[in-house]
Amino acid sequence: MGQKQQKDLGGNSVIIRLEIRGDRMNFGLVANIVSSLGGDIIAIDTIHIGNDSSIRDMTVNVADATAVILITDAIGKIPGIRVVNTSDRTFLLHLGGKIEVTPKVTIQNRDDLSRVYTPDVARVCAAIQEDPIKAFSLTIKRNTVAVISDGTAVLGLGNIGSRAAMPVMEGKAMLFKQFAGVDAFPICLDTVDTEEIIRTVKAISPAFGGINLEDIASPRCFEIEERLREELDIPVFHDDQHGTAVVTYAGLINALKVAGKSLSEATVVVCGIGAAGVAISKILLSAGVMELIGVDKEGILVQGEDYANPIKTSYAGYTNPNRRTGTLRDAIKGADVFIGVSAGGMLIREDVMEMASQPIVFAMANPHPEILPGDIDDIVAVAATGRSDYPNQINNVLCFPGIFRAALDCRASAINEEMKLAASEAIASVIADDKLSKHYIVPSVFDQSVVERIRDRVIRAAIDSGVARRIPKEYR
Ligand SMILES: NC(=O)C1=CN([C@@H]2O[C@H](COP(=O)(O)OP(=O)(O)OC[C@H]3O[C@@H](n4cnc5c(N)ncnc54)[C@H](O)[C@@H]3O)[C@@H](O)[C@H]2O)C=CC1
Ligand SMILES: CC(=O)C(=O)O
Ligand SMILES: [Mg+2]
């Protein structure tokens, strides 16, 4: 993926194109109007100067879409100014997509041409035919991951279809490259049929060193991942399950230190027993949580009930040891930890007030968390969300670049439990105990030591657990 044409990612900002009649614009008046409506002008660019009018682009930071409407309405009423159009900078940076393929070498002449392509390339093909493992050294397989979605559980937007899922998958590919140097291809499949997805992923797998499944709805995501893990010899990792679980456990290790609590004594409520909720629960149980209660639309999941979704029936069998019943409100009373991977706005301040002292709230639904940190910051030990605009971003982006970097570098045949736990511990360990605080329990995704530390611990775990097929030099 080339990074030649770097685009400015901008903030939550719009470009408002103005036509200004006459030769003067009252900048003070415009600035006052924009700021009184919650905006902040960050640039004004002259696009065209005509005889009677000029065209200027005004870039404004805004809190939300409503502010844009209010600002453009008010500016449009200033005599001599016409609002030509507004461009959302987020849409602008998506124009034409966010990634591209760039060759590593330039073909300068016929000699180069015959090496990269026919006839010489045939010798390389023959070498791989003779010894298929050479695909790892002679093709992009060595460093390339497929990011596969069927568009059925995209962020918290739900089943928006495979075309609409592409911007998220392109974004994941950017993150893979920027944070860990992994080349990733976004592939959105136009099918929601479990067998067809499995067949298709298997059919395209020769080109890839790993498969990152993304935003595939539960319960189908479980079978798709399980079957692909069994049938492919490269790592298959459903990021919404395991990436989220790894980062949640990392965040919890540190949040518990801030709250002065222990994992084995904490009562943990997980809300939303889908892809993320099931995997989070499993990693926390294997890490030593004793009392874990799952809540979904049916209320608290309890053993003995026969839920329409068999995943929930089986989940109830290994959680909720005290067989508590009732609603989310009942579950959360006296709980030490709330983990939300369900839907926005599920929780209210009064619920959190019912939790044990020094509660920990991870409201991780995207894009709208179960509760906003601002509503509870004064009554919790730690609050976290999945978003980048609040402190404590518990998001799988902290995990997937590093864990795949490690898996590719040691040619792992799988990403197993040992590697996931190692990744959690690596992420948590980036912040020294004396630096931990209420608003700093997980490192920033821009902290370069995150990927390095995950890579190191995960490669060691892969070697120790016997799934590494290549031992990198520094580990020999
Ligand atoms: N911060 C992060 O890194 C991540 C956040 N997420 C977010 O977590 C949420 C769930 O994602 P997935 O597990 O992939 O989806 P999913 O569709 O597999 O699971 C969602 C679960 O939440 C339940 N749910 C929905 N509304 C509910 C309600 N009102 N009460 C109780 N349960 C409810 C559903 O029944 C379902 O079992 C999404 O908002 C997603 O964006 C998911 C993965 C990573
Ligand atoms: C972060 C992510 O993968 C999700 O919200 O689906
Ligand atoms: Mg996702």
Automatic annotation (TrEMBL):
Xref: SMART domains: malic (SM01274), Malic_M (SM00919)
Molecular-function annotations in GO: malic enzyme activity; metal ion binding; NAD binding; oxidoreductase activity, acting on the CH-OH group of donors, NAD or NADP as acceptor
Domain Malic enzyme NAD-binding: residue ranges: 241-463
Binding residues annotated for (S)-malate, in chain numbering: N366, N395
Gene3D superfamilies: Malic enzyme, N-terminal domain, NAD(P)-binding Rossmann-like Domain
Annotated InterPro entries: Aminoacid_DH-like_N_sf, Malate_Decarboxylase, Malic_N_dom, Malic_N_dom_sf, Malic_NAD-bd, Malic_NAD-bd_bact_type, Malic_OxRdtase, NAD(P)-bd_dom_sf
Residues annotated as catalytic: Y117 (proton donor), K172 (proton acceptor)
Keywords recorded for this protein, A-Z: Metal-binding, Oxidoreductase
Keyword Oxidoreductase in record: yes
Cofactor stoichiometry and binding remark: Divalent metal cations. Prefers magnesium or manganese.
Cofactor: Mn(2+); Mg(2+)
Domain Malic enzyme N-terminal stretches: 96-229
Residues at which a divalent metal cation binds: E214, D215, D240
Entry similarity comment: Belongs to the malic enzymes family.
Protein name: NAD-dependent malic enzyme
Species annotation: Cohnella herbarum
